[in-house]
Design goal:
The chain is an alpha+beta fold. The chain has helices spanning 27-31, 74-94, 128-141, 157-185, 219-230, 248-254; strands at residues 45-56, 60-71, 102-110, 115-125, 146-148, 152-154, 188-205, 233-247. The protein has six helices and eight strands.
Length: 255
């Protein structure tokens, strides 16, 4: 995963009363509001923003294998397709593909004097090497009635949620680090957080190819690499964080 530099601003708020008087404040802001019984703070705060962008490669590949046959009788067309399906499923078992990751569909049609049957096997792989091995075996061993489509890559929902959280946490951490540096430069100490707000969260897939990389590549391998690149997921987060500012001597006494 990769991150981008944070954009940060800081504003020192003058001493005064309660700083949480905005009627539009969020629940999080109200939750961080100090109880009336607590000792009064200095009333000064530093406000910063932080941004972070992360990326993650796809962790799933879906391979679709189609089988077609045309015969004079239902039995013949069914047997023809079933034999090829059994070979495909056996190849998947040999590569330790779980049955729960495999879906098989069949369609039978009647023509004027014959029967057509089409079947499709859809397989979700988390091991890309196994996926490529299965694809190569089927292309080599089976005839033209079997078609192996190029794989489709994606990021699983759990991994995408993890990427979103990591982007947000990294943006908050960067904002905290910058706020600490601002306070240190001003001879002050960073206090507790008063408000944390994610102002913007974005996600997208794919990015433009940079610098002509791979421009000379051709063939199936280049196409596979291009598919992985296009399926790469990105998540960005922009946060606003407010911290209490404490005098340095007070912070030292606490330690």
């Amino acid at each position: 995963m990769t991150g981008s530099p944070s954009r940060v601003f800081a504003a020192l708020m003058p001493a005064g009363g309660d700083t949480f008087r905005d009627e539009n404040q969020t629940n999080l802001a109200r939750a961080l509001q100090p109880p009336a019984c607590e000792a009064q703070t200095s009333g000064r705060e530093v406000q910063v923003t932080g941004s972070c962008e992360l990326s993650a490669l796809p962790d799933r590949a879906t391979l679709c294998i189609s089988v077609s046959s045309n015969k004079d009788s239902v039995n013949d067309v069914t047997n023809s397709v079933s034999r090829r399906l059994e070979y495909i499923l056996q190849a998947l078992r040999q590569h330790e593909v779980k049955g729960e990751n495999t879906t098989v569909t069949k369609v039978l049609r009647r023509g004027d004097n014959s029967y057509d049957m089409e079947a499709e096997v859809s397989v979700v792989f988390t091991d890309f090497s196994a996926m490529q091995s299965v694809s190569n075996v089927l292309v080599e061993k089976l005839d033209r009635t079997v078609t192996v489509s190029p794989p489709s890559f994606s990021l699983s929902p759990d991994s995408l949620n993890k990427l979103r959280r990591q982007a947000c946490l990294a943006a908050v951490e960067s904002a905290r680090r910058k706020a600490r540096e601002v306070c240190g430069m001003l001879g002050q100490a960073l206090g507790r957080p008063l408000l944390v707000k994610e102002e913007e969260a974005r996600e997208w897939t794919g990015q433009p190819e940079e610098g002509g990389a791979g421009a000379g590549q051709r063939g199936a391998l280049a196409s596979l690499q291009e598919s992985v690149r296009k399926a790469t997921a990105f998540a960005s987060s922009h946060v606003y964080v407010s911290f209490e500012i404490r005098p340095k001597d007070r912070a030292r006494k606490k330690h």
